[in-house]
Amino acid sequence: MNPVDYLRISLIDRCNFRCLYCMPEGAELDYILKQQLLTNEELLTLIQEVFIPVGFTRFRLTGGEPLLRPGVVELVKKIAHLPQTQDLAMTTNGFLLAPIAQKLYDAGLRRINISLDSLDPDTFEKIIGNQGRKRWQQVWDGIQAAYNIGFDPLKLNVVVIPGVNDHEVLDLAALTIDKIWHVRFIEFMPIGNGDLFGDRGWVSSTDLRDRIRQRWGLTESQVRGNGPADVFQIPGAKGTLGFISQMSECFCDRCNRVRLSADGWLRPCLLNETGQIDLKSSLRAGCSTTQLQSQVRELLAIKSEINFKQRDSGTVGTYTRTMSQIGG
User: In 3-state terms, what secondary structure has residue 267?
Assistant: First the structure.
Protein backbone atom coordinates (compact mmCIF):
# COMPACT_ATOMS: atom_id res chain seq x y z
CA MET A 1 0.00 0.00 0.00
CA ASN A 2 0.91 3.64 -0.35
CA PRO A 3 2.12 5.47 2.75
CA VAL A 4 -0.94 6.77 4.61
CA ASP A 5 -0.40 10.52 4.99
CA TYR A 6 -3.80 11.98 4.06
CA LEU A 7 -6.50 12.73 6.67
CA ARG A 8 -10.05 13.61 5.68
CA ILE A 9 -11.59 15.61 8.51
CA SER A 10 -15.36 15.94 8.84
CA LEU A 11 -16.06 19.27 10.53
CA ILE A 12 -19.80 18.72 10.95
CA ASP A 13 -22.33 16.02 10.08
CA ARG A 14 -25.10 18.49 9.21
CA CYS A 15 -25.78 19.67 5.68
CA ASN A 16 -28.03 22.21 4.00
CA PHE A 17 -28.70 19.70 1.20
CA ARG A 18 -30.17 16.24 1.50
CA CYS A 19 -28.66 14.50 -1.51
CA LEU A 20 -30.27 11.15 -2.23
CA TYR A 21 -26.97 9.26 -2.43
CA CYS A 22 -25.73 10.73 0.87
CA MET A 23 -28.83 10.73 3.09
CA PRO A 24 -31.52 8.05 2.67
CA GLU A 25 -34.82 9.60 1.63
CA GLY A 26 -37.30 9.74 4.51
CA ALA A 27 -34.77 8.56 7.06
CA GLU A 28 -34.44 10.33 10.38
CA LEU A 29 -30.78 11.01 11.05
CA ASP A 30 -29.43 11.30 14.57
CA TYR A 31 -27.32 14.43 14.29
CA ILE A 32 -24.34 14.82 16.55
CA LEU A 33 -25.02 17.17 19.45
CA LYS A 34 -22.76 20.21 19.64
CA GLN A 35 -21.08 18.99 22.82
CA GLN A 36 -20.24 15.70 21.09
CA LEU A 37 -18.40 17.38 18.23
CA LEU A 38 -14.66 17.78 18.42
CA THR A 39 -13.95 21.36 19.43
CA ASN A 40 -11.54 23.41 17.36
CA GLU A 41 -8.98 23.04 20.15
CA GLU A 42 -9.40 19.25 20.30
CA LEU A 43 -9.15 18.96 16.52
CA LEU A 44 -5.98 21.05 16.39
CA THR A 45 -4.50 19.02 19.24
CA LEU A 46 -5.15 15.79 17.36
CA ILE A 47 -3.67 17.20 14.14
CA GLN A 48 -0.56 18.67 15.76
CA GLU A 49 0.16 16.14 18.48
CA VAL A 50 -1.19 12.88 17.06
CA PHE A 51 -1.54 12.85 13.28
CA ILE A 52 1.45 14.96 12.24
CA PRO A 53 3.86 13.00 14.48
CA VAL A 54 2.77 9.71 12.88
CA GLY A 55 3.30 11.07 9.36
CA PHE A 56 0.21 12.94 8.18
CA THR A 57 0.92 16.02 6.07
CA ARG A 58 -2.17 16.32 3.86
CA PHE A 59 -5.59 17.33 5.12
CA ARG A 60 -9.05 17.74 3.58
CA LEU A 61 -11.95 19.42 5.37
CA THR A 62 -15.34 17.85 4.65
CA GLY A 63 -18.80 17.52 6.20
CA GLY A 64 -21.75 17.18 6.01
CA GLU A 65 -21.22 20.68 4.72
CA PRO A 66 -18.00 22.12 6.19
CA LEU A 67 -19.03 25.74 5.59
CA LEU A 68 -21.75 25.27 8.24
CA ARG A 69 -19.04 24.89 10.89
CA PRO A 70 -18.79 28.07 12.98
CA GLY A 71 -15.36 29.69 12.70
CA VAL A 72 -14.37 27.66 9.66
CA VAL A 73 -12.16 30.42 8.19
CA GLU A 74 -10.06 30.68 11.36
CA LEU A 75 -9.77 26.89 11.53
CA VAL A 76 -8.56 26.81 7.91
CA LYS A 77 -5.98 29.47 8.73
CA LYS A 78 -4.60 27.56 11.71
CA ILE A 79 -4.27 24.27 9.83
CA ALA A 80 -2.87 25.91 6.68
CA HIS A 81 -0.16 27.68 8.65
CA LEU A 82 1.14 24.62 10.49
CA PRO A 83 4.70 24.15 9.18
CA GLN A 84 4.11 20.45 8.51
CA THR A 85 0.98 21.01 6.39
CA GLN A 86 1.93 20.20 2.81
CA ASP A 87 -1.58 20.30 1.42
CA LEU A 88 -4.97 21.55 2.64
CA ALA A 89 -8.17 21.13 0.63
CA MET A 90 -11.91 21.31 1.16
CA THR A 91 -14.95 19.52 -0.25
CA THR A 92 -18.16 21.58 -0.24
CA ASN A 93 -21.54 21.68 -1.95
CA GLY A 94 -20.75 25.29 -2.87
CA PHE A 95 -24.06 26.77 -1.70
CA LEU A 96 -22.46 29.06 0.89
CA LEU A 97 -19.18 29.49 -0.96
CA ALA A 98 -19.43 32.69 -3.00
CA PRO A 99 -19.47 35.18 -0.07
CA ILE A 100 -16.71 33.38 1.83
CA ALA A 101 -14.43 32.14 -0.98
CA GLN A 102 -11.97 35.05 -0.81
CA LYS A 103 -11.68 34.73 2.98
CA LEU A 104 -10.91 31.03 2.67
CA TYR A 105 -8.28 31.74 0.02
CA ASP A 106 -6.69 34.46 2.16
CA ALA A 107 -6.64 32.03 5.10
CA GLY A 108 -4.49 29.63 3.09
CA LEU A 109 -6.91 27.27 1.36
CA ARG A 110 -5.85 26.67 -2.25
CA ARG A 111 -7.63 23.52 -3.39
CA ILE A 112 -11.37 23.02 -3.40
CA ASN A 113 -13.80 20.35 -4.62
CA ILE A 114 -17.39 21.39 -5.29
CA SER A 115 -20.25 18.97 -5.84
CA LEU A 116 -22.10 19.58 -9.11
CA ASP A 117 -24.24 16.60 -10.04
CA SER A 118 -26.23 18.30 -12.79
CA LEU A 119 -26.21 21.33 -15.08
CA ASP A 120 -30.00 21.27 -15.19
CA PRO A 121 -31.54 23.16 -12.25
CA ASP A 122 -34.57 20.85 -12.05
CA THR A 123 -32.47 17.68 -12.04
CA PHE A 124 -30.14 19.30 -9.53
CA GLU A 125 -33.04 20.08 -7.17
CA LYS A 126 -34.26 16.50 -7.47
CA ILE A 127 -30.85 15.09 -6.54
CA ILE A 128 -30.27 17.41 -3.57
CA GLY A 129 -33.73 16.68 -2.16
CA ASN A 130 -34.83 20.29 -1.97
CA GLN A 131 -38.22 21.32 -0.66
CA GLY A 132 -39.14 24.04 -3.10
CA ARG A 133 -35.98 26.11 -2.68
CA LYS A 134 -34.00 26.78 -5.86
CA ARG A 135 -30.31 26.32 -5.19
CA TRP A 136 -28.52 25.55 -8.46
CA GLN A 137 -27.69 29.17 -9.28
CA GLN A 138 -26.15 29.82 -5.88
CA VAL A 139 -23.92 26.76 -6.27
CA TRP A 140 -22.93 27.89 -9.78
CA ASP A 141 -22.09 31.33 -8.38
CA GLY A 142 -19.85 29.64 -5.80
CA ILE A 143 -18.03 27.73 -8.53
CA GLN A 144 -17.49 30.90 -10.55
CA ALA A 145 -16.25 32.78 -7.47
CA ALA A 146 -13.73 30.06 -6.65
CA TYR A 147 -12.49 30.03 -10.24
CA ASN A 148 -12.14 33.80 -10.44
CA ILE A 149 -10.31 33.99 -7.12
CA GLY A 150 -7.76 31.46 -8.30
CA PHE A 151 -8.38 28.16 -6.52
CA ASP A 152 -6.23 25.64 -8.35
CA PRO A 153 -7.07 22.92 -8.90
CA LEU A 154 -10.80 23.56 -8.89
CA LYS A 155 -12.52 20.19 -9.00
CA LEU A 156 -16.18 19.45 -9.65
CA ASN A 157 -17.46 16.19 -8.16
CA VAL A 158 -20.21 14.36 -10.04
CA VAL A 159 -21.93 11.29 -8.61
CA VAL A 160 -23.36 9.55 -11.65
CA ILE A 161 -26.87 8.20 -10.99
CA PRO A 162 -28.47 5.86 -13.56
CA GLY A 163 -31.62 7.31 -15.08
CA VAL A 164 -31.20 10.59 -13.23
CA ASN A 165 -28.12 12.45 -14.48
CA ASP A 166 -26.13 9.95 -16.54
CA HIS A 167 -27.47 11.58 -19.75
CA GLU A 168 -25.49 14.73 -18.81
CA VAL A 169 -22.07 13.08 -18.77
CA LEU A 170 -20.93 14.69 -22.04
CA ASP A 171 -22.16 18.14 -21.03
CA LEU A 172 -20.36 17.88 -17.71
CA ALA A 173 -17.19 16.58 -19.36
CA ALA A 174 -17.27 19.56 -21.75
CA LEU A 175 -16.76 21.94 -18.79
CA THR A 176 -13.09 20.95 -18.87
CA ILE A 177 -12.48 22.05 -22.46
CA ASP A 178 -12.26 25.83 -22.12
CA LYS A 179 -11.50 26.30 -18.42
CA ILE A 180 -8.97 24.80 -16.05
CA TRP A 181 -11.68 22.85 -14.30
CA HIS A 182 -11.25 19.25 -13.27
CA VAL A 183 -14.40 17.13 -13.37
CA ARG A 184 -14.42 13.97 -11.24
CA PHE A 185 -17.00 11.29 -12.05
CA ILE A 186 -17.70 9.17 -8.98
CA GLU A 187 -19.43 5.80 -9.00
CA PHE A 188 -22.40 5.75 -6.61
CA MET A 189 -21.64 3.95 -3.34
CA PRO A 190 -24.54 2.25 -1.51
CA ILE A 191 -23.33 3.26 1.95
CA GLY A 192 -26.41 3.42 4.13
CA ASN A 193 -28.47 3.51 0.92
CA GLY A 194 -28.36 -0.05 -0.31
CA ASP A 195 -31.83 -0.06 -1.90
CA LEU A 196 -31.76 3.50 -3.22
CA PHE A 197 -31.57 2.81 -6.96
CA GLY A 198 -32.78 -0.76 -6.87
CA ASP A 199 -31.52 -2.91 -9.73
CA ARG A 200 -30.25 0.14 -11.65
CA GLY A 201 -27.04 0.00 -9.63
CA TRP A 202 -24.31 2.35 -10.74
CA VAL A 203 -22.66 3.40 -14.00
CA SER A 204 -19.11 2.11 -14.37
CA SER A 205 -16.22 4.43 -15.12
CA THR A 206 -15.37 2.32 -18.15
CA ASP A 207 -18.78 3.04 -19.62
CA LEU A 208 -18.40 6.79 -18.99
CA ARG A 209 -14.95 6.87 -20.57
CA ASP A 210 -16.26 5.06 -23.64
CA ARG A 211 -19.00 7.66 -24.11
CA ILE A 212 -16.54 10.54 -23.83
CA ARG A 213 -13.97 8.83 -26.05
CA GLN A 214 -16.52 8.34 -28.80
CA ARG A 215 -17.40 12.05 -28.72
CA TRP A 216 -13.95 13.71 -28.46
CA GLY A 217 -11.30 11.07 -27.94
CA LEU A 218 -9.59 10.64 -24.59
CA THR A 219 -5.98 10.47 -23.50
CA GLU A 220 -4.34 9.72 -20.18
CA SER A 221 -3.41 12.96 -18.43
CA GLN A 222 0.01 13.85 -17.10
CA VAL A 223 -1.74 15.56 -14.18
CA ARG A 224 -2.09 13.34 -11.12
CA GLY A 225 -4.00 14.06 -7.95
CA ASN A 226 -3.60 13.04 -4.31
CA GLY A 227 -6.47 10.61 -4.52
CA PRO A 228 -7.59 7.42 -6.28
CA ALA A 229 -8.90 9.03 -9.48
CA ASP A 230 -7.73 7.75 -12.84
CA VAL A 231 -7.10 11.00 -14.70
CA PHE A 232 -7.73 11.56 -18.42
CA GLN A 233 -8.05 14.53 -20.74
CA ILE A 234 -10.05 15.44 -23.80
CA PRO A 235 -7.40 16.27 -26.45
CA GLY A 236 -6.69 20.00 -26.32
CA ALA A 237 -8.75 20.59 -23.17
CA LYS A 238 -7.47 22.90 -20.43
CA GLY A 239 -8.84 20.78 -17.61
CA THR A 240 -8.96 17.06 -16.84
CA LEU A 241 -11.44 14.26 -16.28
CA GLY A 242 -11.07 11.96 -13.29
CA PHE A 243 -12.84 8.67 -12.68
CA ILE A 244 -13.21 7.34 -9.15
CA SER A 245 -14.17 3.69 -9.55
CA GLN A 246 -14.62 2.38 -6.03
CA MET A 247 -17.39 -0.01 -7.11
CA SER A 248 -16.09 -1.42 -10.41
CA GLU A 249 -12.39 -1.47 -9.55
CA CYS A 250 -10.48 -2.04 -6.32
CA PHE A 251 -7.87 0.63 -5.62
CA CYS A 252 -7.10 -0.38 -2.03
CA ASP A 253 -3.41 -0.71 -2.90
CA ARG A 254 -3.37 3.02 -3.79
CA CYS A 255 -5.27 4.17 -0.70
CA ASN A 256 -3.36 6.81 1.26
CA ARG A 257 -6.10 8.07 3.59
CA VAL A 258 -8.13 7.63 6.72
CA ARG A 259 -11.21 9.55 7.87
CA LEU A 260 -11.88 11.43 11.09
CA SER A 261 -15.58 11.96 11.83
CA ALA A 262 -16.93 15.13 13.35
CA ASP A 263 -17.32 13.35 16.68
CA GLY A 264 -13.77 12.01 16.70
CA TRP A 265 -14.00 8.47 15.32
CA LEU A 266 -11.06 7.48 13.12
CA ARG A 267 -12.15 5.22 10.26
CA PRO A 268 -9.44 3.41 8.28
CA CYS A 269 -11.60 2.42 5.29
CA LEU A 270 -14.64 4.09 3.75
CA LEU A 271 -16.22 0.81 2.62
CA ASN A 272 -15.45 -1.12 5.80
CA GLU A 273 -16.47 -0.31 9.38
CA THR A 274 -13.85 -2.54 10.98
CA GLY A 275 -11.17 -1.13 13.26
CA GLN A 276 -12.55 2.34 14.06
CA ILE A 277 -11.17 4.06 17.15
CA ASP A 278 -12.76 6.77 19.30
CA LEU A 279 -10.07 9.42 19.66
CA LYS A 280 -12.35 12.07 21.15
CA SER A 281 -13.43 9.96 24.13
CA SER A 282 -9.83 8.92 24.79
CA LEU A 283 -8.67 12.52 24.60
CA ARG A 284 -11.39 13.72 26.97
CA ALA A 285 -10.69 10.85 29.35
CA GLY A 286 -7.14 12.13 29.77
CA CYS A 287 -5.19 9.77 27.51
CA SER A 288 -1.88 11.32 26.54
CA THR A 289 -1.28 12.23 22.93
CA THR A 290 1.59 9.74 22.99
CA GLN A 291 -0.91 6.98 23.78
CA LEU A 292 -3.17 8.19 20.99
CA GLN A 293 -0.24 8.14 18.57
CA SER A 294 0.28 4.48 19.45
CA GLN A 295 -3.38 3.70 18.78
CA VAL A 296 -3.22 5.40 15.38
CA ARG A 297 0.02 3.60 14.46
CA GLU A 298 -1.56 0.25 15.35
CA LEU A 299 -4.55 1.06 13.18
CA LEU A 300 -2.35 2.04 10.23
CA ALA A 301 -0.41 -1.21 10.62
CA ILE A 302 -3.56 -3.26 10.02
CA LYS A 303 -5.16 -0.92 7.48
CA SER A 304 -4.16 -3.01 4.48
CA GLU A 305 -5.86 -6.08 5.94
CA ILE A 306 -8.99 -4.05 6.77
CA ASN A 307 -9.06 -2.61 3.25
CA PHE A 308 -8.93 -5.92 1.44
CA LYS A 309 -10.93 -8.12 3.81
CA GLN A 310 -14.69 -7.93 3.21
CA ARG A 311 -14.06 -4.80 1.18
CA ASP A 312 -17.71 -4.43 0.20
CA SER A 313 -18.73 -3.44 3.72
CA GLY A 314 -17.00 -5.20 6.59
CA THR A 315 -20.38 -5.05 8.28
CA VAL A 316 -23.13 -7.46 9.16
CA GLY A 317 -26.28 -6.21 7.49
CA THR A 318 -26.26 -2.48 6.79
CA TYR A 319 -23.85 0.35 7.52
CA THR A 320 -24.41 2.01 10.86
CA ARG A 321 -23.63 5.45 9.41
CA THR A 322 -24.67 7.07 6.16
CA MET A 323 -22.21 8.86 3.92
CA SER A 324 -23.15 12.22 5.43
CA GLN A 325 -22.39 10.93 8.92
CA ILE A 326 -19.03 9.42 7.93
CA GLY A 327 -17.75 12.52 6.17
CA GLY A 328 -17.49 12.85 2.39
Answer: strand
